[in-house]
Amino acid sequence: MKLCDSCGFYVGPEDTKCRQCSKPIRGRMEFEEIKYTPQKNIEIQKPKTPEKIIYHKPKSKLYNFTRKAVILLILTGVIIAPQTQSLVKEGINYWDEINKPYYNIPESIELTMVRNFTIKLQHSGEGYSDYTLVVSKPGDRPIWPQQDGNTWQTVTDFSAIPEYEETEEGRMKWADRVEGNERDYIEIEYKVRVNTLRPDLKPEDSGTVTDIPEGYDTYLQDEWLIEPSSPEVIDLANQLSNGTDGNVIKILQNIYNYITFNYTYKPSSIPKSCDETIENRIGDCDDFSILFASIARAAGIPTWLELGQIPAFIDNRGGCDLRDWGGHAWVNAVVPLNDGSVTVVNIDLANSYFMWMPAYRISDWVDDGNGDNLYSYYYLFSSKGTAVSTALDNSYISDCEIIGNLKLEEL
Q: Does residue 38 sit within a domain?
């Protein structure tokens, strides 16, 4: 009988492990049979063959030079070709054009002007006042003595409420009485088209003072504050004509430069005499125009005032925005030309327009050479009675359209 070496339990003749402690019996170890099954379709990879290195012989210097020369010749041919030259020239011109500064000026403006006058006592409720209001009626331009060949201002659809009396000077007159808290209202409305005037004139196009035709003697004489007979004005005329050989445009340019560079703009309620303006070296559009006309007349050039309205605020970037209209004065002057014809130029000293005018203006009245009429233009309202009345002018544009555009490199 055989016993387990570990626990001493009986071990049968066929046992390989103790039935008690499951320990293997020495000398009776059991081995599992391992079966070998060969694998099928196993791919055996062959070692990779090294890549073949191909060697290129470097190009010669002559080859590289020839290649560059051919490319250069092709480029040169393209550049000097007439078609390319034309494109290059057009491109340069276009570049210069888009980088050139210029001013946008409307060729024409069409607008509807509304002028509302309110007449009332300065101190409401006290007494009465008999008033007279006289307003110049705008019309087509040019008119005598202007010599422009083409119409540059056209007025249509004119209306005035209440009706007016027309004076001998062609102005509109209203006369009535206001008392206490009463107010009278006068409304003027009209459509007007105004063109920019910019003649292509140079000093070499101008004739001389002796070429000025007859018929303008009225505009060489004294007229209210226009004083060509003033000794100081005569002295200035002689100085500013010196060295011009009588060339009218050169004389006008000298007078314009003299006032522009020696006087300061300062608004005033009433025009001043030439002596006062010269002494103080200040003035507004009326003062500068009167002084200019005086010197030009003393130099033998027929010159007169044109009066009307211009806006103080102008914005044409997004349309036609013209606001704060007020009275304005500028100058007309006769210029004989080398071809024997005669023209009239516009000069606005307050706005620095020499021999041209933009469309931002309305001409109400052209000086007729009568000093009384020129004086009365500045004193259009009067009143008398136990109280003083006043006229408030509210002018505005109800409709405006810009037509055409001029690109100017200089003003």
A: no
